[in-house]
Amino acid sequence: MSSPPAHSSSQSVKPPLCVDLDGTLVATDTTAESLLELIKASPWGIFSALGALFRGRVALKSFMSRRVTIDATALPYRPEVLAEMRQARADGRKVLLVTASHQSTADAVAAHVDLIDEAVGTRTDTNLKASRKADFLVSRFGNGGFQYIGDSSADLPVWKAADDALMVAPSNTTQRRAEQSVTRSRVLVKRPNKLRAIVKELRPHQWAKNVLLFVPLYFSHQYTNLDLVFTALMAFLSFNFAASSIYVLNDLVDLSADRQHRTKRNRPLAAGDLTIAEALGLIVSALVLSIGLAVAFVNPRFVFVVIGYVALTTAYSFVLKQKMIVDVLTLASLFTYRVMAGGVAVGVPLSEWLLAFSIFFFTSLAFVKRYSELIQIRADGAASIKGRNYVPADIPIIVSAGPAAGFLAVLVFALYINTPAIIAYYPRHQILWGICLVLVYWIMRIWFLAARDQMHDDPVLFAVKDRISLLAGVAVAGCLLAARYGG
Q1: Residues 149, 137: contact at Cβ < 8 Å?
Q2: Rounded CA gap, 240 and 244, in Å?
Q3: What contacts 36, CB < 8 A, 6 or more positions away?
Q4: What is the pTM (predicted TM-score) of this model?
C-alpha cells in the first residue's frame, strides 16, 4: 500500500524533479575526480585515501571533501539534463539535486547551476545511494510522488519508487531492467559508443610521429632486409601503444584544463565519454601490449628503451610540461628519442648529424606548438595557457627562438650533404640541396600559419593532414631518389 505524498495538492499535480549528479547531471564521477586531483597535488595522498576507504565510502567522501575542492564550473554538464531541469522550473516544479557525492560537492554544483532549488548529498552518516536514496525520497515525497533522472543500475530502486525512469546513458541491461520495473521510462541521453571512444582516446592519428623509428633503417640503407623491416614494424607498433598509454595519462592529468580548451574539450575523457576508471584500465592494457610486443618481437635493449620513454613522458605529464623552456626541450627530445629507439630496435648506430638535425628541427616544432596555443588564448582573451608556464607576452621570444631552431636544422643538413658518407652513397648528392629549400619553405609556412591562428596545436598532426606538407614530403623523397639513382 502506497504511503501518501508528503506535499500539498498543488505539488502532487506537479511532482518535483530529482536529479542524480555523477554520470547524470555531469558526465563524470566527482569522487574519482577528487581522488585524481589529490594524487596530482600529492601522490602519497593515495595512501591516506585508502586508509579512509577502509572505514567505508562515507569516510572516504568526507576525507576527500576536506582535502580537495571540486571546481563546479569545470565539470562536463549534460545539456540534455539541464534542458529537462529548465523545463521543470518553467512548469513550476521544484528541482532537487540528490547525490551520493559529498554534501560539499552538491552545494558547489547547486551554487553554479541556477536551476537547483535544493541540494542533498552524502553527509557523515549515510551514503545516499541506491535503496538509501529511494528511502530518503519516499520519506519526503511518497511513493510515486517525484520524478527521477539517473544513469546506472544503482538507480533502479529510486526509479521503482518514482515509478518514472528518466535515463541518462544507461547500459543495455540497466535500460531493460528499468523498462520492466516502472510504468513510464524515457532515455534522455544515449550511451556513447565505448569502442569508438577508446579508439579516439588512443589517438591512432598521433602514431604518425612514430614513423621516425624507421629513419635509422632508411639511412643505414638496409631497408631491403626483410627481417630488419619486420623488427622495425614491431618496434613501431610497440611504441604506438606505449605512446597511447601516455596520451591517456596526459588527458587524466590535464582533465580540468582540457575542458576549458576550444578543441580538447571534445576528447573522450574531457567530454565524459570515458570514465576515469576506464581510462586507467586503458593505460594498463596499452602498456602491457607495448611491452609484450617489444619482448616477443624486438630485443631486450628495446624493452628498456620503451620503459625509458614511458618514464620520460610520465615526468613530462606530471612536472616538466609546467616548466618554461624545459617543456619545449623535452618535447624535442622525445621526438629525437624515437629516432634513437629505431636505431636500437634494428641494431643500427646513429649518425651525430641525424641526431643534431632532429634536436633542432623538433625544437622548432615544439615552439610552434606553444606559439599556436598562445595565439589561441590571446584571441580568446585568456591570461595564460592553462597548465603551462607561458603568457602572451612570451610570443616575441618564441617567434625569435622557434624559426631560428628550424634554420639551424637546415644548416646541419646542408653541412651533412658534403660529408664523405653522403658523397659515396648519393652519386648526384648536389640534388640534395633541393631538400634544404623545401625545409626552409615548410618551416616558414607553418610559422606563418601559426601566426594567423590557422595551425593545429600539434604541428606534426597538422603536417599529416595538410596537402602542401604532404607535397613537400613527396618533394623530399624525390630529391633523395634522384640523388641516389639519377643518371
Answers
A1: no
A2: 6
A3: 252, 255, 276
A4: 0.81
